[in-house]
Amino acid sequence: MAMRAPSALIVLLLVGAFSSVIPYTRPPPRDTLFIGRADYESPTTPEQVHVSVVGQNQMRISWVTDDPASATVDYGTSSGTYTSSAMANTTSYSYESYQSGQIYDAVIGPLQPSTVYYYRCSGDSSLEFNFTTPPAQFPVNLVIIGDLGQTGWTQTTLQHIAASNYDMLLLPGDLSYADYDEPRWDSYGRLVEPLASQRPWMMTAGNHDVEKKVPPAPFTAYNARWRMPFEQSGSDSNLFYSFNVAGVHVIMLCSYTAFDEDSDQYAWLQNDLQSVDRAATPWVFVLLHAPWYNSNYAHQGEEASVGMKQAMEGLVYQYSVDVVFAGHVHAYERFTRVYNGEADNCGPVYITIGDGGNREGLATDYMDPQPEISLFREASFGHGELDIFNGTTAFWTWHRNDDDESVVADSVWLTTLASNPNCSSS
């Protein structure tokens, strides 16, 4: 992966350091999308294909068919030549009058890092996909985006992400905005398949991922369609888990399941943070949906934010988490390093990035004056990229996407807290 030219980085850094808001005239809203299944496809043709990492050298391939098909994945490092295969697990679910298709997931590997693999899912031997495995060591590029949805803005966001040289996408909740309109989960899977089938997409759930009418259970569709590697991190829930990628430890938390000090999620987080080896993974990131710090009037005072912050902020600070990413608020905001409401050089950087392209629009009403701990905020759609060059240095850029051009509007250099002797990591 090529590094950006130093001169360009300096210019971007200055933009992020000295501007709190870059003036921008937002264009009008765009239509909500629905991507249907193509009429010419057979009921056993794989669709909604996406990949996610499992451990250090495995990948999970997930897909859906209308009718049951042979549940296997064939794969190899040459197009059309498949030297290995794996059996898939199969599930389905019903919701009122809706019946899902057959939902498959197969874990393949061991795989080599930074390698292109070609694969085909059962049901259509002529339909080939490919993905690239993440690197085993630095540098690594992560795309981070929340509240993606299915609108014209979403399409622009996806186009800009596709043009970037990224290794993995992280999504802190609110995927499809189905809101218990179950066919919209299928539409979302088709919309993101061109990207999600080529790079691992790792995520946690948001409030719009909840089935609000029960039965079934609150996260039935999400858990069936977007299975994450929770078992490997000692979690008993698909809603919170962790994994490593190229010297980075990523923790996914859920704002909408129990998080108090007596909860399973709290106990798991404490154990997970205690087990992090900062020599092997000097960077630690947390992703969750409802932001703990937010100077937008949207979503102020919610228990998912206030209660979770009260319960877990101490743990995150004690173990020197580098950045906490959130969604929920449909805008972008970057805070300085913070703990207990005040600037603290040993606290995480807090970034809200709930601006992927949702159908509800932007959260345009910010508090005035801007809090001192809030360094940059803007109500525009966009996506973030984190270039992690080594065990100490990374570069964050926020790309404003809703003008149909990927324009860097905010940026900052980051140094891991593991390299700061004044900050605790245990």
TrEMBL record:
Residues 142-332 form the Calcineurin-like phosphoesterase domain. Its cofactor is Fe cation; Zn(2+). Residues 1-19 form the signal peptide. It catalyses: a phosphate monoester + H2O = an alcohol + phosphate. Its EC number is 3.1.3.2. Residues 347-409 form the Purple acid phosphatase C-terminal domain. Residues 46-133 form the Purple acid phosphatase N-terminal domain. The keyword Iron-sulfur does not apply. One of its GO terms (molecular function) is acid phosphatase activity. This is Purple acid phosphatase.
